[in-house]
Amino acid sequence: MTERLTTLLRDEADRLVVPPPPAEILLQGKRRRRRDQATLGLVAVVVVAVTGAGIVAATGRGSTSAVDPAKLAEFEQWGAVAVGRDVHIGRTHVRTQGDISAMYYSADGVVIRSDGDYQLVRADGEVSSISVDIPDRVPGFEPDSTRFAYAEATGADEWQVVVHDTATDEELARVDVAGPAYGGWSAPPVAIDGDLVWVHLADRWVEVDWRTGSVRDVPGTGTTYEVANGAYAVQSGGYTERPGEPWEVRSWADGSLIGTADLRPGWYASFSPDGRYLRAFPNEADPRSWRPEVFEPATGLSRTVPDEDFGWTPSGDLLVVEGDQIRVCTAMTGECRERSFDRGAGDLRIGGNPYES
Amino acid sequence: MARGVDDEEFTELVHAVWPSLYRTAYLMLGEHQLAEDLVQTALAKTYASWHRVREPGAAPAYARVVLANTAASWFRKRSWRNEHPADELPERAGEHDLSDRPAVVDALRTLPPRQRAVVVLRYYDDLSVRAVAQALGISEGTVKSQTSDALARLRTLLGDSVVPIAEGARRD
Known about the structure:
The complex is a heterodimer.
Chain A: H1 3-15, H2 24-36, H3 69-78, E1 80-83, E2 86-89, E3 92-95, E4 102-106, E5 109-114, E6 117-122, E7 127-130, E8 140-141, E9 147-155, E10 158-165, E11 170-178, E12 190-193, E13 196-200, E14 205-209, E15 214-218, E16 226-228, E17 231-235, E18 247-251, E19 257-261, E20 267-271, E21 278-282, E22 293-296, E23 301-304, E24 311-312, E25 318-322, E26 325-329, E27 336-340, E28 348-350
Antiparallel strand pairs in A: 1-2, 1-28, 2-3, 4-5, 5-6, 6-7, 8-9, 9-10, 10-11, 12-13, 13-14, 14-15, 16-17, 17-18, 18-19, 20-21, 21-22, 22-23, 24-25, 25-26, 26-27
Chain B: H1 7-29, H2 32-48, H3 59-77, H4 104-109, H5 113-123, H6 129-136, H7 140-158, H8 167-170
Helix pairs in contact in B: 1-2, 1-3, 1-5, 2-3, 3-5, 5-7, 6-7
């Protein structure tokens, strides 16, 4: 009989020190459910804080304290806006040391770049340094993880993909990648989603599994424009050859078609942080008066947005700043809620938008 | 009508199943961080697919199925280092002292991922052949053959007293 094997397995299992469950499971489940849904109607972002019941909110190995779930919920609902050196994250106001040039969503809050330095601003207002030296490249972040990735030169047309954890400020992995870089950058831009990092080389994207070290060329990505968690956007025939043709949004996993976005000729688009929507705007000055359009490729829906400029909350709602008002609207139905904030002086940075220069 | 998810109810589920799912995941994967990631992913998926849970009492079992499915998909996508059995099995072991035998987790690590999952689900989680087949998305026949192969290898590492000869085929 195999009772002895069962006994040995259970003895081993009983000896394990089981860590507490992370608090972000609930938020991750909500985000996954929203990604899975492709329906019309109001997306009710009702975020219930995980309180009591003894769940210890862990922000990662080595974290000294957990982010208050109520603050995470506010961050999920209101996103983040930066003005000068002030960050308004959820309903929390944080003054940092220097003007903010870029801001990226991460699971615990936002990562800001200021004078070339990177810092994590948590949803509860705690600020910590991130020990990376990457002032001149485009890192990849994902809103439902504390990890981010970037590329580093190691030789002529040789790079290392680096994965770093903002919660513990620890480097997690390095993987070698070879190939000519996309012009103008000291290292290729990258995107990350879970275990996978995509590197933008001059003539293709390569996919890196940072846990196993495997690297593969992703076919059909020579003319990829934008990338997001799990998906990328291409255009049949290439932008310059067939301007005005619909953009195709395809899955990184197998290249299957997720949906299309019928952009106006001469317009460009970028993904929302959760990869669900595309925001379209003119690539060059359009003599006509225009308003941005938002596409949901999975459903084929689109909507003209009345606001000239907007960003995104981590959960895919539009984030608009008008004077001292912050307005959050559902992407497809346009239903909004708003609040006032103490807007100071300085350049505006709206969460979910790229500000690479 | 699809059953909605109550956040408090789900939070209670997380509390209740996390330790046991973590142990199963650790036995399957052999690494603590991977185990934590696997359980976290499985529970997030459980939340997202809550409408498939027939009633609250079935939620823990459903979460375990999601865990096994997620592990199976990971195994299909990844190239695991050091996760292939030796081309030739070691010389058959005689009766060893317990203290001379490798830990059972070390022995599990020598198995291919799917065999390891089958062993853990059958002999740790005590699932039936049918339940394991459904959890891993394979046939019952495959579960049986994978069990037999896995036990043969474990026998060489852990000895006859742990895995008696011909016992693997009898357990259904």
